[in-house]
């Protein structure tokens, strides 16, 4: 699958086969989830991050089914982590969030890469609370890491996903690092040529 | 003749002040000499106090003035927000906007006769800045709290600077 065609597939599905909801409603809903978690865990932002990741994981396990159903016939099986990364960024994120993060920073062995987010619809209007720790400890969009992890696990890839920089914290870019731990079944050898 | 914005203030629906910013703190053309610094600080404080008082006085006029305005849907369809000149005092004209949530946005500028000023885009921009401030999910909606956000501060400063830099 060439790069251009993957992008076109994503655009096409987004335009035609996806019901859309209001962006502010979505942003405010996610914002209230995070704010409530912060209140419940009384400022223990590590637990908030963990909880967001767990929620995302459960979402990812289910979301992959929806994704595969929507893209059935349009995309072929991925033969390498590089293919998966392309589909993830240009079709999956496009179809569900209407964004296409850039795939970058591959390691030499091809088992790790980054997704760089130019825009993050989850974090519109958000300003992290001013208590000193939030801006160093809280990964606001951590639910996305969980979603990626859960979804990829259902297609036989065990990965670790985490944010390494976030625009909300004052960094220049929002970057998620994805590491392939192992392939879960031996049916199709993937990614290690 | 330039008509500059002197201050912007936001008052909550319970009439408690949320935000007052005077353009003296935005103006970047002040001399840096030490002797002037204290004088400037006094001036700034006095101005802020004056603008505070003006905002309070304007509150009385808001309901009477704005309720008298014609229904926007029937007259000018382009401007769907209504603002009105509330009062002129001490060379400063105060314009106000009353939102449907009873939040008031006040803009004070130099008073001049026969000047036709369109503040609709300015009020719209201020309202949008306020909306993006309110949508912050970490904000506690206690209305005794004044607006502390740097982002909001910067956006208001940018709006005022934009207006003041336009040649009129």
If you had to describe this structure to a student in words, what would you say it looks like?
Chain B: One of its GO terms (cellular component) is cytoplasm. The complex is a heterodimer of chains A (193) and B (168). Chain A has six helices and four strands, in the order ααααββααββ. Chain A is an alpha+beta fold and 193 residues long. Chain A has one domain: 2-Layer Sandwich (Muramoyl-pentapeptide Carboxypeptidase, domain 2), CATH 3.30.1380.20. A four-stranded antiparallel β-sheet of chain A has the order 1-2-4-3, with helices on one face. The radius of gyration of chain A is 17 Å and the shape is globular. The mean pLDDT of chain A is 88. Chain B is of the alpha+beta class and 168 residues long. Chain B has a single domain, classed as Beta-Lactamase, CATH 3.30.450. Helices cover 39% and strands 20% of the residues of chain B. Chain B has a five-stranded antiparallel β-sheet with strand order 2-1-5-4-3, sandwiched between helices. Chain B is globular and about 40 Å long. Chains A and B meet through α2 of A and loops of B.
């Amino acid at each position: 699958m060439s790069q251009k065609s993957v992008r076109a597939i994503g655009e096409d599905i987004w335009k035609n086969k996806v019901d859309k909801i209001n962006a502010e409603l979505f942003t405010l809903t996610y914002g209230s989830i995070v704010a409530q978690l912060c209140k419940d865990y009384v400022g223990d932002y590590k637990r908030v991050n963990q909880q967001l990741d767990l929620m995302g994981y459960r979402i990812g396990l289910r979301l992959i089914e929806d994704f595969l159903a929507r893209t059935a016939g349009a995309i072929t099986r991925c033969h390498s982590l590089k293919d998966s990364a392309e589909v993830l960024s240009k079709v999956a994120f496009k179809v569900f969030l209407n964004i296409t993060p850039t795939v970058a920073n591959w390691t030499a062995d091809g088992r790790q890469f980054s997704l760089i987010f130019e825009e993050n619809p989850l974090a519109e209007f958000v300003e992290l609370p001013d208590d000193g720790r939030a801006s160093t400890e809280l990964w606001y969009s951590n639910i996305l890491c969980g979603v990626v992890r859960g979804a990829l696990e259902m297609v036989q890839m065990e990965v670790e996903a985490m944010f390494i920089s976030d625009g909300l914290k004052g960094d220049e870019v929002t970057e998620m690092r994805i590491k392939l731990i192992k392939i879960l079944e031996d049916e199709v050898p993937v990614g290690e040529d | 003749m330039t008509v500059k914005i002197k201050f912007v203030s936001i008052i909550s629906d319970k009439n408690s002040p949320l935000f007052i910013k005077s353009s003296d703190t935005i103006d970047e053309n002040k001399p840096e000499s030490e002797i002037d610094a204290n004088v400037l600080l006094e001036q700034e404080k006095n101005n802020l106090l004056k603008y505070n008082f003006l905002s309070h006085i304007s509150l009385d006029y808001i309901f009477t003035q704005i309720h008298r305005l014609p229904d926007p849907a029937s007259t000018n369809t382009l401007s769907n927000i209504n603002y009105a000149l509330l009062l002129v005092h001490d060379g400063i004209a105060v314009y106000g906007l009353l939102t449907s949530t009873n939040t008031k946005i006040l803009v004070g500028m130099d008073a001049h006769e026969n000047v036709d000023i369109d503040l609709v885009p300015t009020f719209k921009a201020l309202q949008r800045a306020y909306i993006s401030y309110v949508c912050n999910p970490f904000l506690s909606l206690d209305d005794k709290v004044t607006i502390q956000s740097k982002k909001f501060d910067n956006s208001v400063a940018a709006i005022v600077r934009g207006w003041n830099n336009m040649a009129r």
